Structures are given as structure tokens and as C-alpha cells.
Amino acid sequence: MLVESPPEQRAETAPAPPTRRAVRAFGLLLSVVLLVLVALASIAIGAKELSLGQVWHGLFEDSGTYGDVVVAERLSRTLLGLLAGAALGLAGAVLQALTRNPLADPGLLGINAGASAAVVTAITYFGVTSLTGYVWFAFFGAAAVGALVWFLGGSRGATPVRLALAGTAVSAALYGYLQAVMIMDEAALGKMRFWTVGSLASATNSTITQVLPFLLTGTVLALALARPLNAMAMGDDTAKALGANLNRTRALSMLAATVLCGAATAACGPIVFVGLMVPHVVRSFTGPDLRWILPYAAILSPVLLLGADVIGRIVARPSELQVGIVTAILGGPVFIFLVRRRRTAQL
Amino acid sequence: MKTTNRAVRTGGLSIRLDVRALTVVLLLIVAALVASVVLIGTGDFPIPAADVLRTLVGEGNPGQEFIVNELRLPRVLVGLLVGASLGLGGALFQAISRNPLGSPDVLGLGQGATAGALVVIVLTSGSAGQVAVGALVGGLVTGLAIYLLAWKRGVHGYRLVLVGIGVSAIVTAVNGYLLTKSDIVDAARAVVWMTGSLDGRDWDQVWPLLALTAVLVPLVLVNARGLRMMEMGDDVSYALGVRVERVRLLLMVAAVLLTASATAAAGPVSFVALTAPQLARHLTRSPGPNLLPSLCMGATLLVVADWVSQRAFGAEQLPVGVVTGVLGGVYLLWLLVSERRAGRI
Lengths: 347, 345
Known about the structure:
The structure holds 2 protein chains of 2 kinds.
Chain A: H1 7-10, H2 18-44, H3 52-60, H4 66-98, H5 111-125, H6 131-152, H7 160-184, H8 186-195, H9 205-224, H10 226-233, H11 236-241, H12 246-268, H13 274-286, H14 290-315, H15 323-341
Chain B: E1 5-10, E2 13-18, H1 19-41, H2 49-56, H3 62-97, H4 104-107, H5 109-124, H6 128-150, H7 157-181, H8 184-195, H9 203-222, H10 224-230, H11 234-239, H12 244-266, H13 272-284, H14 291-312, H15 320-341
Helix pairs in contact in B: 1-3, 1-14, 2-3, 3-9, 3-12, 3-13, 3-14, 5-6, 5-7, 5-8, 5-12, 6-7, 6-12, 9-12, 13-14, 14-15
């Protein structure tokens, strides 16, 4: 991240000139409008098309018609998309700042794989079928793998390549385990092959109430970390001189990222690249100040996730393409583009 | 460090021999052969090693002859060839990417081959032969895509790895999609294939593999000299007269072909390509690419893993890929920690 910003931009962590701040605030407002539009599209578009009038009717004047039922169904899906998208975007932004690595992403760092492996274990060996149970397993898996990758990647001496490789290696090992379980247990295969691609389709209101507390805690924690992470971006020594507590900030950042990813993954399965792409796009117009990056990421990530979900519903009518597949197919090329654009010395 | 190199000079010919590496290669070949004989004797109808040897030279009784020559020998041969191809392919990729983790598994070749195979399994419910062709095509296309995408005035090691990771993520998503589109019977077949298995392999798989390795292995070994120099960096090897990009392209094509054909025959058996070169390097204690030791190590590993998978799980036999996955996972963690401590990655 900060590797690529020229020095004069870095100075912007100091209070920006008022006009600039106004532009950013306006942009944030614009993003909210965009989010509302995508959310409406997510309610209106699907196997059964609804007019905007029907959507309005279903949202605010419940009268039990067929359209209202469809709206209620799609509403919980849209809400989950909003929450999970925001969580993944925030987690990505925090991880990228923490590791000083523009390629950090919960999927790439194996946190998603950890959650998946834990959920398969829960289904097969502990007979867990409810989401209530999944969440705790997903948390445990995400936390354990997050810590492992952080350690294997060299903890404080972590470089982009080490972390990416450690994450990929651990993911590969965990997916091996996943396959072994699915071969031995066909029932688990039946469930897992849909869960592992990442989908919003199974969202219900109880899903949302289950993960909501975790997502809110994680969001607050992440937003509160903007200032200390800004200080850390200037280098460990400078940050220390500015009074930042490095170890506490690192630990809290990992915690925030883990809670956010664990909850999001438990609710909709592993979804890659949202957390990678959005903070990148955001950074290109906000500059390196996390006090702006984090709110932007929290608003624009659900735009991407819901957008991908809508695309998935349109391209494969009358069935649908799971959102995790659409985000990977959109995100993979972006990742490769970023790798290519970067000077090799920085990798 | 104590050097184990000996110079051999006879007349106009002069060769440098690494005695330790040579010993390792010989010992590994012996180990692979012993493991093969034991593996042939293993199964629902056990055959003592002496009888296996007698049958192999053509002096067994008709019953044993059928079991050994028609059922178990081709399976073992496929195992040996697949292991050798994966070991060599892995060593090549690790040397080219200058990274001990730059194996075909990580770079997405396995996933690419899987995508090809899944297309055949899910969309056409095709025969085993068609699945193999699909896997081969998938692997080759993925290898080509990674090379082209990583190309930017030459292919740099890290960029190759990271582009591979990106491609692998895209292909994994496609695979997940294909798996959700299949019915449960096809899905179960696909998952077994994706794990890598030697079950039911016969002579039809042996011949193409044998032909391909017979061409590629000598080709690779002849060019190994350039690869060894390239470990010193592109500029130095240019100065030493190595045409870097040409050698790299040639060796990458060979590595992709080896990996893709091995995957077509047995599925993406995980971790052999990653671990064989590392283990070989630890045994030879030689810094170079260790191509021949890696090849022998790969063959030995796969045959031993197949034996373990047949013996260890009793009635519910697991495919060999599960064993290599579990062993490889443990090994990988150890490798990551020790390489980090040594400051190599």
C-alpha cells in the first residue's frame, strides 16, 4: 500500500485542506447513494422481476401479496450481503495496513480456508447443522489460521511474498483435508460443495441476527484502529516516537480482521477478493489516510458484493451463479493486473 | 563445506561427478524398486515378494501372473512414472521461480488440469480416457496462461508465483461452480479424481506416460546446466553464455507437460511436486536444482504413499492423494518454519 504512494501524498495524513475534505465527504455520500441503488437492484432483480413500485410496496406497506413475499425473501439476502460485504472490505483494509502489504486479503491469507476447514469438521465430526454452531467453529478456524499464517509469514518481519506464500500453503493443506473429509462422507460433500463456493442464497433473518453482534463489534474495532494504523504506516520507529503501542495495535488488528472474516465466512461461505479489491480502488482516490479508507471500504465493498450477486443472478437465469464465484472471476484479473503493474523490487 | 565432487577424466572427456548425489540417486532407485515389489504383493490377494519377482521374470503360476501383470504391475508403473514426472516438474518449477514453494500445486497447474477434467466429468460424464485428455488440455492451457500473464520483459520468479496464485484462485472458483452444477454421483467421482488416485490404472495409461517421459527427461537433463547457472541470477548467466529466456521457456514447457500428463493419469496428487525436490536437496546437500534426485524421490514417495493408503485405512481405502496431502501438509509447515529461520524466503 504505502509502498506505492509518492512522498508528497503521504503528507496528507496531516489534516487535509478543507476543499479536499469536502470532496471526500461528498464522495462518501455518493457511495451511500450507490449502495442504496445496488441494494434496491438486489431486491428487484432475480428469477422473478419486480418493478420499483412493487419493491416499495413490499418494503413499507406489507399486504401479503406475492411480490411482498419475494421482497421479504430477497431483503434478508440483501441485508446479509451488506453486512458481509462491509466486513470483508474492512478486514481487507485493516490487513493491508497491518501487513503493509497491498496484496493482503482474508482469502489469500488462508483465513477463509481455516474457517471452511473448521465448518467441515463441525458438520462431519460434531454433527453441527445450525449456523449458530458454525459461527463458533468458523471463528476458531479463522483465528487459528490467521495466527499461523502471521507466524509463518515472519510476524514482524513479514513481507508481501512470505505472507502470500504462507497463506497459500496453509490453504492448500487445509483444502487437502477438506477433500479427504468429503470423500469419506458423501452427506458432507452434498452440503459442503455448495457452502465452499460462497453464496448469499441461504440467508435468513436468523442468520443475520446470529452474526450481527460479531460484525458490529468488528466494525467498531476496525474503525477505531484507523488512527494507530495510520501512525504505524510511517514505520515502526516513527510510530513508537508518536506514542503508538505497536504490539497492541497489531494484536487488535488481527482480532478485528479475524472476527469480521470469521463471521462473514460463517454466514455466506468463503468469498475471496472483495477484501483485496475494494481497499485498492478506494486508496487510489482517498490517498493513504485510513480514516477515509475504512469508511469508504465499508460502503463500497457491499456495493461490489451485491453487484456481483446481482450479476450472478442475471447471467445464469433461471438458476444463479454463486456470489463467491463471480467475485473470484472478477477479482482474479484485478489481482494479476496489480502484480504486473508493481515493480518487481517491491515484491 | 566438505565437497563431494570428483573429476573424472578419460582421454578428451572430462566430467564432474557429485558422488553424494550419485549415491542418493542409486539408493532412491533401489528404494523405489523395493517399494514397488512390496506394493505389487499387497492387496486382497497377498503375494510374497519372492513370488512377485518370480512372476515378473515370467516363471509364476497363471493366477499370480494375471494378478501381477494385468492388475498390479500397470498400477505400480503408473505410480512410478507419475511420481517421477511430478518430482522432476516440481524441481524445475522451484528452480525457475527461485522459490522453494513455487510448485505446480501452488501455481495453479493442478487446478487447471482439474478444471479440464471436471468439464468432462460434469458436462459429458465422459470415460476415464476422455477425462485424462480434458485434464491434459486444462493443464497445458493454464500453464500457457500463467507464462503469458507473468511475461513482462522476461519472467521474474516472484511475479510468476503471484500470477500463478491469482490464476489458481480464478480456476478454483470455476471448479467450485462446476461441482455445484453436477449431480451427487458425478460430484463424488470428481472429488475422488481431484484428490488423486491410482485405482484401476492399466496399461493404457502406462504407454503414453512412458513415451512422454522418455522424450522429456533427457531433454530436461541436457538443459540442466543452464538452469544451474540461472540460479546465480539472469545477468550473470547471460554473461556466462546461457540464453536465459530460451532455456527458461523450454524448461517451463517441459515442466508443464510433465505435470499435466502426470495429472491426467492420476489426478492432481498433491504435494509430491512440492516435497520431492526439497527432500532430495536435504539428502544430497547440493545447492543446485537436483533434477535427477528429485525425479527418483518423487517416484519413491508416490509408490510408498500408495502402499500406505492401501494398508493404513483397511477396508475403506482412501485415494493416494489423501496420504500425500496429509504427509505433505505436515512437511510443508516444517519447511516454512525452517526456511524462514534460515532467511531463505
